[in-house]
Amino acid sequence: MKVAVTGLNNVDNPAPGVPVIRVIKDSGQFEGEIIGLIYDSLEPGAYMPEVSNKNYLIPYPSAGLESFYNRLVQINADENIDVIIPTLDAELFAFAKLESKLAELNIKVFIPTLDQLTIRGKDKLFDFCQANNIRAPKNILASSINDLYKLPSDLKYPVAVKGIFYDAYIANNFDEATTYFNKISSKWGLPIIVQEFINGEEYNVVGLGDGTGELVGAVGMKKLYITDKGKGWSGVTIDDSELIDISKSIVEILEWRGGAEFEFVKEKESSEYYLLEINPRFPAWVYLAVGAGQNLPFAAYQLALGNKVTPFESYETGKIFLRYSWDLITDIKKFEEITVKGVLKNE
Amino acid sequence: MSEIKISSNLAISENGFLFMPLTGESFTLNEIGVEIVNFVKSGINSEEIINEVIETYDVEKNIAEKDILDFIAQLKNFKVAVEG
After folding, report:
1. Which chain A residues touch B24 with a CB distance below 8 Å?
2. Nearest to A170 by CA among A200, A204, A128, A125
3. Could you give the ipTM of this predicted complex?
4. Sheet of strand B25-28, all strands in order from the earlier edge strand to the far edge
5. What is the pTM of this model?
């Protein structure tokens, strides 16, 4: 088997590729090679022999779907890839659009459909939640600074200012909101989401839907340490059936296909959960789910191959992950190899 | 004095480390804190807890009463304990 995985940029805003590969290998049932698909020559996971056997540079999907697809065809001609596991939000639309063409190459993916990706979009999520009695913060889409002048009366400061794909800041007043609007729009484009700020603690769930409405597994987590980029650097598994039940109902309603991360905030006064986001892929902390007893990425890999999986019934509470950074020393020749040839083989 | 009880599904170690699986929060208690939580768990009310502490430790009733009621208020504030 050859499995290609994206998102090997295990940096201060880590992508989920490296943990996804680790857990597939940890299953003890995987025999084959891991191919890293990387967007940048310095994605650390590409230089780790224990992570990937071989790595290929690929163009960003934003460079055009055709060139993205052609590069995958080129790589597949050498590698005969069986499964691709995309792990980044921004590439999922491209993979979903290419799913049937990849199937013609005998490459399988197990990812959300285009409709599912659209519904969970930050600009559509509130409507979905309203229609399905799931609490979510109110929001508006701002396409210009002018829209910030006309915030609805029930949207009071502080508000969360978010990019359509990434980045979020809390703005306490109009001046801060305009600063964050400019900062995010220059990086990620428009529209900007201006969202009601819910005061409370953040909770996350990693889950896997089988595409027919069944939740294969889900693990709840509370972040214990959050970096200045808002990334959880340690977290603990928790036992809150309400959190899992809400995630389960979302998977059922959407017939969610693939991995997902459900981000909630528990409102301080009412202790009620509000759904902030659905990330349409496994999170970078997915290794914790495996430590707690649910190897969800390996189950997703099995589903991609068309195999049946038995849903997970429970997980261990009180398991903690602690992320750390580690300096990897390598030779400039490796960097040269991937930069010039677009291919890097790990011995 | 009102009855209180410890929230269900709460783990407390001999070292005084208290973990709430529902919320992921953790707290560290000192020796007497562990004793008080264990008293609450055993089902006795605030007044009985105060009497137990006075019997065990060399402390005046009004000081014990103030400290223990403060501590119980904190347990409720952090949702470690709820009104029973």
Report:
1. 203, 221-222, 224, 235-238
2. A200
3. 0.78
4. B11-12, B17-20, B25-28
5. 0.91
